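Input chain follows. Return structure tokens only.
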Amino acid sequence: MYSVFLVEDESVIREGIKSLIAWEDYGFTFAGEAADGELAWPLIQKLRPDIVITDIKMPFLDGLALSRLIRKELPKTTIIILSGYDDFSYAKEAISIGVSEYLLKPLSRTQLTEALAQIRTQREEAERQSHYMAQFHTEVQEYLSSSRRGFFDLLISGRMSVSQILDRAQRLGLDLAAPSYNIVLFLLEEDPLHTEYSASLADVQEEICRRFPENENLLLFSIGVDLLVFLIKGETADIGRLTESCVESLREICKTAEQSVDWSVVVGEPVHRLSSVTGCYRTVRRAMMHRDTGSPNRVVRVGQTTEPYAVDFDPNNLDAAKMDQRIVSKFLINGHRDDMDSFVEDYFDSFDPEGVRSLLFRQYVVLNIQFTVNAYLKNLGCPAAAGGRDLARALTTLNETKRYVRDLLLSALSARDTAVSRQYRQTLQKALSYMEEHYADPAICLNAVAKVARVSATHFSAMFSQQMGKTFVEHLTDLRMEKAKELLRFTNENSSEIAYQVGYNDPHYFSFLFKKTNGCTPRDYRNGKNQVS
């Protein structure tokens, strides 16, 4: 219901208007009253009514002055002016202020009910339009987010020419042309098997999206449930400053959640060709893998020595404590198959060349990795992994050892991905069940379903797209359309009634979506003129 506040200095008229109609029967509640504008204004500020009915001539603060205050501070409040003066100058000034109705006294029940009915209709239509614009914006953003993830994968794959990249970017509304580029990676260091909803984590993700609106110098890409890529672009003289501004903003955002969220930022070195962004990204990803795993909540810069495991090896004095198992553990948690070769190469390159040529040392390295992998798999509830090769043969040469380690880690990642997928399916099932039960609620949205699934909205959006192969909005629309087709086939209800039953307040928007997704109108579908099942 819409709330109404009445301002009238004559008590008899004020009481008469209050009792003129049964407010609730017309969809309104009587929120309050005042004898003049000066008394009314603080009450209106507090109550924030949907509609204010005010006399035009009052002591202390008249109706026109009060209307100006309302229009400035409460622009969505509808104003009705009451006047005993049939004077065009008053009406003209009221119109210039933005008053919706100008009613002459004495006021009849019919005048008031007609004016209120018209205002209610206008407000309901405005709210519907606002809702659909918000819904449309959400759909567009999800579509763009999905398309952009695919675009970024192609951008850093090295498989497209510069002209192809620019053409595809233009179709997505992205301007990539610039003299210089840099990459900043931001990782929220979550264990993918423990992704329950965290208000702190969600706050960080949402604040990042809010604080980093896209502009001519920054593009933001989400390439996983916990990894964000900032593509910085600009003039060569400015690229360092722009990069540092991005880093400092991330650091500032994360300060509010350092007690409950681990994070890492890796900063690349600027490049001066779009074709060089691929190499810049790969270097940054490599640095992310080899950051100091014992020191989260820090910024790592490419080119600086950050590996805690880079040691000088003395075959006569091997210090086993310098073999940090957290490096492998961190890769098992956050690593990707595409990074496997570079991880293994960098891992062995970090040791003294004399050391890795030692059979005894290679045996120690392999056993250390084997123990780390098996401990991780045990934590997942999986059986111990085997490298897929004969261990004695694997130790004969450095290259054979690398192959053995690669196979060992790949088998562990496969087990991890299976376990994560199982965890995601369980989480996703909660969301899908909730959507099945509440698809008809017009207010259902990604944030609400994410809370039911107990994950952050950003995490849920990425997880949903990865597991389902379509966005949240696409699935919700498909679900509603299937229910609509069922009602069209087996009931005699008209399309407007069906629209309301499947979650759409606007029958026209429902018909538009139905034709868009099914290739025919609801009427044609009911009459058998469709080409869909």
